[in-house]
Amino acid sequence: MAAVLRSACRCVFRPALHRRLEMQGMCTAAGSSVLDKLSFDNVALRRLPLDTSDEQGSRIVHGACFSRVRLQPVLGPRLVALSGHALSMLGLDADAVRQDLLAPEYLSGSRLLPGSEPAAHCYCGHQFGQFAGQLGDGAVCYLGEVLAPSTEGVGVPNPTGRWEIQLKGSGLTPYSRHADGRKVLRSSVREFLASEALFHLGIPTTRAGSCVTSDSRVLRDVYYDGQVSNERCTVVLRIAPSFIRFGSFEIFKAEDEMTGRQGPSAGLDDLRTQLLDYVIDTFYPELQQAHPDDRVQRNSAFFREVVQRTARLVALWQCMGFCHGVLNTDNMSILGLTIDYGPYGFMDRFDPDFICNASDTGGRYSYRAQPSVCRWNLLKLAEALVPDLPLEASRAVLDEFDAEFDDCYLTIMRKKLGLLRQQVPEDKMLVTQLLETMHNTGSDFTNTFRLLSGISHSYLGDTEEDVLQNIVNQCASLEELKVAHRPRMEPRELSMMLTLAQANPVLFQFLNSRKPVMQELERVERYRELSQQSESDYLDKQRALWVKWLDKYRNRLSMEVEGATDIEALATERLNIMKSSNPRVVLRNYIAQNAIDAAERGDYSEVNRVLRVLENPFSDEVNILDDIYSTDRTVDESAEQMASEGTAEEGSPSRAFVPYDSKPPSWAVELCVT
C-alpha cells in the first residue's frame, strides 16, 4: 500500500529529491488531506546558493545559504492548538485541519507536504555582543513558500504573493551543533502563543499556525542545574514572508578581531551580492524600481527601510512593555518582524531594567536597553553589507534611527494617553514623569495604562477617586517592592568591587563592572529607603505620587478640549482610541505557564482558551471572556481525569485560576525563563 501511495504522490520538486523522500517513506497520495491543496513555489531555493552535500550531522557549510535536510518523524503526533487566523493566510480552514487525520503528521514533519522541499538556512550572529560564527537553523526546517490567497497577516508588506512556512523542532540539520534539533512542549507553547499575541496587539511578527506535540521524548536540563527532565518533542508551524535575518549576511564576515571566528562563506562577495539582490528584488521591489541604475543608492534606500522598520518595531515593544530577551543579530528580521521567541516577557510591575531572560545576568537585553541594542545590531548589519553599501553611507542612514524611534514612540504614547488634537513639547516630559511614577510606586504597566482612560480633563469627584484607587491597587505592596529591590550582591562582593573602582579605575571599566555596580548601589539605597517606611506611610506616598502626576495629566487633557464644540464626542473618541491602544490582556508569563502546566498534564484546553483571549486583547466584551471568569474554575478542569487515564505529566502543578486581566499572582515573580 505504501508503494502505491508513493507512486501517486503529487510531487513538483526535483526528481533526485523525490527519490530521496521516497526512501524516507514520506510522500503521500494527492487529495488525502486538506493540506495537500497547498501550492508551493520555492523561489528562495532557486535564487540562492544551495548546499550540494548530502553529508549528515553538524558541519560547516561553505558557499551556501541553504542546506537540504531530511525530516525526522515523531511518535504519535497530535494537535495541541491551531490558529485559525494564521492558517487562513495559507487558505486553510482551521476546523477542516482539526478534523484531518493526517494533519498532525504533516504539521510535525512526520509526513512530507507535496511540493515542499525541506531545507535549513545558514546564518551567523553576534550573540551577547560577540561574533559566534556559524549558527543557522539548528532546529528549524524550511518547507517552502506557499502561494498565498492573502498577503496580509504579519504587520509589514508582503509583495511576494507567497508565505514561507517552517517547522520548528523538526529534527537535526547541519546547523544543530551539539543539540538534537528538537523543541519541547513548554517552549513551543510559548512561541505559538507569543506569535499570535503580538500580531493581535498590532506588532509586526512572524506567525504560528499550529502546535503539535508527540510521544517522542528528549532530555532537557531546564535551569542548567543538573536536574534533567524527560519532555515531549513538540513542533510549531511558523509563517512569514521570509525568515532571513541580519545574521544571514554575516556568513560572509572576515575573521573577527575579538573572537578570531569568521563566517563560513568569508570572502565570497559575489554570493553576498546575490543574497542582497534577492532580498531587495523580492521583498523591497519598489526600491529596485526606484533605483534601477544606481546600486549604491538602491542599497542605501534598502538599509534605510530596515532601519526605519526596526526603529518602529522596538518602539512598539517599548510601548507594550514587551521584552524580547535574546536580541542577537541572528534574531533580528531583515523585514522588521519580531522573530524567534525564546525567553521573552511582558512586564508586570514597571521596571526600566526589567530582564526577562534569566541567562542575561549582565542585562544586555533589558527592557531599557532594547532600542540601543537594536541600533547596535543595525551597525553590525551595515558592516556585513560592505562593500555593496559603503560604511560611510550606511552610518549616515543609521544616524536617523534615534529620531525615527523617538517619533514613533511618542506618537504611540500620545495615543495611549488619549492626546489626540495637539502635540506639545511637554508631552515627552509627561510620559517620562508617568514612567517614573509607575517605577516609584511599582505600578502594573499594562493595567495602569488601561485605567487612565477613566481620567477626564475636569475633575469628576467620586468617579475619578475610584479610578485613582484602582490605579493605587495596581501598585506593588511595600513587601513586594522590598523583595524586588533586595541587594543581589553579597556585601563583601560589593565592597571589593568598590575598592577595585577606587584603586584601578581602568581595570574596573575593562571588566565592564561599572553598570552592575551602579545598579547595585541604587538597589541598596532603594532597599534602605523602603525598609525605613511603614506600610501606611508607603501607601500615603504612593497615593501622593499619583495625585501629583494625575494633576499634570488633567491639565494636559484640558488643552485637548480648548476650542472644541462637541466635548462629549471628543471624550468618546479619546476613550475609544485609548482602549484600542492599551490592551486589557497581554501574554504575561504566569498566563503562559498556566497553559503549559495544563498541557503537560495532557489538557490543551487552556492553551486554546488563552489563544482566544489573546486574539481580542483590547476587548471589554463579556461574551469573549464569559467562560474565563468563573470563580470556581481552576486552570486544568480535567486534571483528575487525565491522571486517572494515565496521560498526565508529573511535576506540573494545578493552581487556582487568576483572571487574565488582573494583577499577577504572587507566585509569578518566581517564574524563571532561560
UniProtKB/TrEMBL annotation:
Reported cofactor(s): Mg(2+)
One MF term in the entry's GO annotations: metal ion binding
Keyword Nucleotidyltransferase in record: yes
Entry keyword set: ATP-binding, Magnesium, Metal-binding, Nucleotide-binding, Nucleotidyltransferase, Transferase
A Pfam cross-reference name: SelO
Transmembrane regions listed in the UniProt entry: none
Region of interest: Disordered: 635-659
Family named by the database record: Belongs to the SELO family.
Protein name per the record: Selenoprotein O
